[in-house]
Each structure stands twice: as structure tokens, then as C-alpha cells.
Write a structure and sequence with these properties.
By secondary structure, the protein is of the alpha+beta class. It is built from two helices and four strands; from the N terminus they run ββαββα. It has a four-stranded antiparallel β-sheet, covered by helices on one side. Strand 1 and strand 2 form a beta hairpin. The structure holds adenosine-5'-triphosphate (ATP) and magnesium ion.
């Protein structure tokens, strides 16, 4: 998934943004087996809105969700829940944030 993918228009005000990724990249593996799953993706999810992410199998939808929910580490860029930058959090704070702010239905 690249930043050129079509996403909803950014929310107007920072307060209306529930989660944000900026230039988010995720690379799995290295060398010949390296996979760039996310290539500098920037996206905002508005508060109190439903947002759908669509794309072919393997385009990085699940990776984006995992990274933005703090379930997986990111390679570069940033991911925020509200005003909280995920990369700066230790395991305990990350666990608290996931428990209090994020829900997944598989
Ligand atoms: N743990 C992993 N190790 C190595 N590569 C991975 C890993 N997880 C995902 N990938 C690769 O990253 C890319 C994005 O995968 P991802 O699962 O995010 O796609 P997806 O859009 O959710 O696909 P699907 O629609 O099939 O669920 C793919 O090339 C996939 O093979
Ligand atoms: Mg998936």
C-alpha cells in the first residue's frame, strides 16, 4: 500500500481525528525476502465515523490496522491514537492504550 492509495479526505480539525498515520512504513524481513507492506502511508480516521479500507489481497490492509493499533511495530513514520504517539510508548502504556481505546472484531 502506498500513499497514493485513495483514502477519505482528512478530517478538518485535529480534535476530530481519532487515529492518524504519517509517512508510515512497515517492512517485513530483509534482503531477498524483504517485503515493503506499507510505503509511507499517510491517513486520518475521523472520530465517530465509519471508514472502510479496501484493496487487493496483500495490499497491506491488515498490516495498517495492526500498526495503527499498536499490535505491531512500525519501521518508520508515525502512528497516533488521539494525541498519543505509539512509538514512544513502553509495553505497559501500550497495553493500557490498547485496552482503553481500541477494539477489534475479527
Ligand atoms: N508477518 C509477516 N511477515 C512477512 N510478510 C508479511 C507478514 N505479514 C504480512 N506480510 C506481507 O505484507 C504484505 C501485506 O499483507 P497484509 O496481510 O497486510 O495484506 P492484506 O491487504 O490484509 O491482505 P488480505 O486481503 O489477504 O487480508 C503482503 O505482501 C504479505 O505477504
Ligand atoms: Mg488482511
Amino acid at each position: 500500500m502506498s500513499h497514493a492509495a485513495a483514502f477519505p479526505a482528512p478530517a478538518r480539525a485535529t480534535a476530530a481525528v481519532a487515529a492518524r498515520a504519517t509517512d508510515l512504513s512497515k517492512v517485513y524481513g530483509q534482503g531477498e525476502t524483504q517485503v515493503v507492506a506499507l510505503d509511507q502511508v499517510s491517513v486520518e480516521f475521523g472520530r465517530a465515523r465509519f471508514t472502510a479500507i479496501m484493496g487487493p489481497s496483500g495490499s497491506g490492509k491488515s498490516t495498517l490496522m495492526h500498526c495503527m493499533a499498536g499490535l505491531d511495530s512500525i519501521s518508520s513514520g508515525s502512528a497516533l491514537i488521539g494525541d498519543t504517539e505509539l512509538t514512544g510508548l513502553n509495553d505497559k502504556k501500550l497495553t493500557q492504550l490498547r485496552r482503553d481505546k481500541i477494539g477489534f472484531i475479527f
